[in-house]
Design brief:
Layout lengths: L22 E2 L12 H14 L1 H4 E3 L4 H18 L3 E4 L2 E4 L4 E4 L5 H6 L5 E8 L2 E8 L8 H4 L4 H4 L6 H4 L1 H10 L6 E9 L20 E11 L5 E12 L7 H12 L3 H6 L6 H9 L1
Antiparallel strand pairs: 1-8, 2-7, 3-4, 4-5, 6-7, 6-10, 8-9, 9-10
Length: 283
Amino acid sequence: MSTRFIYPPPKDGKPFRLSLGLRELDPANWIEVGSDLVEQLKQRNELLETKRNIVFKEVAGYEEAALTYARALKDNLGKFHSDYVVDDDQITHKPTGISVNLLEDHPFVQLARVIAEDLCLLSYENSSWNLVAGVVIFPSRWKLLEKIGKNIDAIHEPVPGYHGALQPLMVDTFNKIKPERPVWRRNWSLHETEELHEPTYTPHKVEISDYWWRTERQTLTKSESNQFLLFTIRNRSEPFKWIKEDPQATAEFIKTLQSLDPQMLEYKRLAQASGGLIEFLKN
């Protein structure tokens, strides 16, 4: 059995379906480090320098809320992660030597230089949750510029089946999250390259055996005022072929792939590759 995936492909054989799948989050796991962190931090700092106008957007007026969350994350790093040194608003990641001060730029921009998580701030207004600030360095085929200022329903408009499966639940579910009980969930996709910064889909001709298993580990943390939610996204790319080290997982994931309808296959950019992926897993 392969134990190399951080979040392995589902091996329950159940049909794919849209669901929130929220679980209670241990504060010690708000931020995830890992063996890929050093390389990711190098990429993140480079992209913040070269593509800042793509990876960072904000609506004016939410700086205080962003700073409050940034300081909570800073304190969390100091408490649970020994690779970080925290001094007032200064955060240093010891393995890379990267050091930032939360007050010297937008606090999300500064945090994004020393942690792997992308950060999105949601504000509850007009009976909906709206994206008002974000640093999204590793988008999975979506553009922050097109999402900033929109509510969660508009943000998820392109997702097949969203209106029937999730839209009726989203606002109420987010409203019910308690400040003292943050939650987390995960998403998966299959990509042709290991590139994490992919705001738009670019086709690549690759062998099926060279596809990448991309996961997003997401957290949601409510503010004490109940007006804000911080949404974090921890992205990883791992070789999909690792799945074949676990024959049972391989067999069950075939069933999941076979359950994807044409609209979801198109959305996940797997319409052309699904047959090849299933054949690869069978052999």
